[in-house]
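In response to the reviewer comment on reproducibility (Comment 2.3), we provide here a single inverse folding case reported in full, input and output, so that an independent group could reproduce the run without further information from us. The structure tokens appear first.
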């Protein structure tokens, strides 16, 4: 207990220092920028991808409002800067950081979108999970001697602990790389419970891993200085360095449109059809991101209550394992896992566990829209429908049967069949990416969700 308390105090002290740092830097920032504001060119003349929902629209409005305030500001200290994703990318490449890999994050979405759209072939790879990204960056360094950037949300720090400690550590293989971390739950900022918990712990986790770090400045000169500091450390210490990215650091950038719609339904449309096919005692475990938010709102619209659903608000990629744990203990209940393609890929090994150990009552549904839709719409490997198939993966893992659907009628037919068949079973629903604007978040806390859900399981 004493050790935990001491670590919490260390984390708190580090957070306080980091929160003060922007004030320390403000004097030099004012001198460097003078009375200017940074104009942002039209970075996407080809248009934009299907919407990123309320959050994206709100951020764009806030950005436009801040630009207006910058023009009207009487004092330089009231001017707020934003990093141009393209200029920051060029600064990275100019310093020899020319390979990019990671898992997209909402705080990094503008930069990730720019890299996705503009990095040369062979210089960018969206990884299955953050640990894979660290391994990819390690392989790149071993083959070229160069430094890579690994981008991730701070919730992915848990996935990198093993390769950081047993691969890149100075006492093991001593492999340098730049960790570019979206700081969800930054102290002093309102966020969801799972992010607030992670945000408070982030500085302490990095310190415990022995990784030096600093917040990324929101203006180009400061950002370039931070990159120089990181480059110097990586070169001299042969070890990872981290930059923490706070919210709304980058100016907006959206992925260009890519072709016409392939499928009649998006994720929410498919989810509604699926939910309407379930029985009153059926159990639902929904994956993180938009899926759980859409499920919650649909239950509200239909006045269904929320006790049947376990909303996996964090723990990306683990919904199917949660479902497996429940199904094994509640063999008389139909257990449906509503998964996403990016989440399923992140911990694909869970499908092997389900296939070899899953009970007859477990029904796994993956809504595949080929994108990390909740954090900016960057593509996932499951987008390549000609060469990638969850159905074949499930069959290879030992699922009793696997189905595919795209239309409303196909979903209804498949769910009806699955409810009458022994599992484990899989249904891959191929859908369009994108979601509606004004999508809210659950109004019940995770603890309330847990209490209601456990009661629902107990009475069945």
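Designed residues, in position order:
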């Amino acid at each position: 207990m004493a050790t935990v308390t001491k670590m919490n105090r260390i984390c708190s002290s580090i957070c306080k220092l980091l929160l003060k740092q922007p004030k320390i830097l403000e004097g030099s920032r004012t001198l460097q920028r003078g009375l200017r504001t940074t104009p942002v060119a039209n970075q996407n003349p080809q248009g934009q991808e299907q919407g990123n929902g309320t959050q994206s629209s709100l951020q764009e409005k806030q950005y436009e409002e801040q630009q207006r305030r910058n023009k009207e500001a009487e004092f330089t200290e009231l001017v707020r800067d934003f990093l141009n994703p393209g200029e920051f990318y060029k600064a990275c490449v100019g310093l020899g950081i020319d390979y990019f890999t990671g898992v997209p994050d909402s705080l990094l979405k503008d930069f990730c979108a720019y890299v996705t759209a503009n990095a040369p072939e062979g210089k960018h790879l969206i990884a299955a999970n953050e640990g894979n990204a660290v391994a990819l960056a390690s392989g790149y360094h071993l083959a070229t001697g160069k430094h890579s950037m690994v981008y991730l949300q701070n919730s992915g720090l848990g996935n990198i602990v093993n390769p950081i400690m047993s691969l890149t550590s100075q006492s093991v293989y001593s492999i340098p790389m730049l960790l570019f971390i979206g700081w969800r739950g930054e102290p002093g900022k309102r966020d969801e419970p799972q992010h607030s918990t992670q945000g408070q712990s982030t500085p302490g986790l990095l310190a415990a891993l022995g990784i030096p770090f600093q917040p990324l400045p929101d203006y180009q000169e400061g950002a370039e200085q931070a990159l120089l500091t990181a480059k110097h450390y990586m070169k001299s210490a042969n070890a990872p360095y981290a930059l923490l990215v706070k919210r709304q650091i980058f100016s907006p950038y959206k992925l260009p449109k890519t072709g016409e719609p392939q499928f009649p339904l998006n994720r929410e449309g498919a989810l509604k059809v699926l939910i309407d096919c379930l029985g009153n005692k059926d159990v639902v475990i929904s994956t993180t991101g938009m899926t759980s938010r859409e499920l919650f709102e649909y239950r509200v619209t239909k006045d269904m209550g929320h006790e049947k659903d376990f909303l996996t608000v964090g723990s990306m990629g683990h919904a199917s394992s949660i479902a497996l744990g429940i199904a094994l203990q509640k063999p008389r209940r139909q257990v449906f896992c509503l998964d996403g393609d990016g989440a399923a890929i992140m911990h694909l090994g869970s499908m092997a566990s389900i296939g070899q150990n899953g009970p007859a009552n477990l029904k796994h549904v993956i809504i595949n829209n080929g994108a990390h839709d909740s954090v900016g719409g960057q593509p996932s490997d499951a987008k390549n429908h000609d060469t990638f198939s969850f159905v074949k993966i499930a069959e290879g893992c030992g699922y009793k049967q696997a189905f595919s659907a795209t239309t409303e009628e196909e979903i209804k037919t498949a769910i009806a069949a699955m409810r009458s068949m022994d599992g484990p079973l899989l249904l891959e629903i191929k859908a369009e990416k994108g979601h509606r604007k004004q999508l809210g978040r659950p109004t019940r806390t995770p603890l309330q969700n847990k209490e209601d859900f456990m009661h629902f399981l107990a009475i069945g």
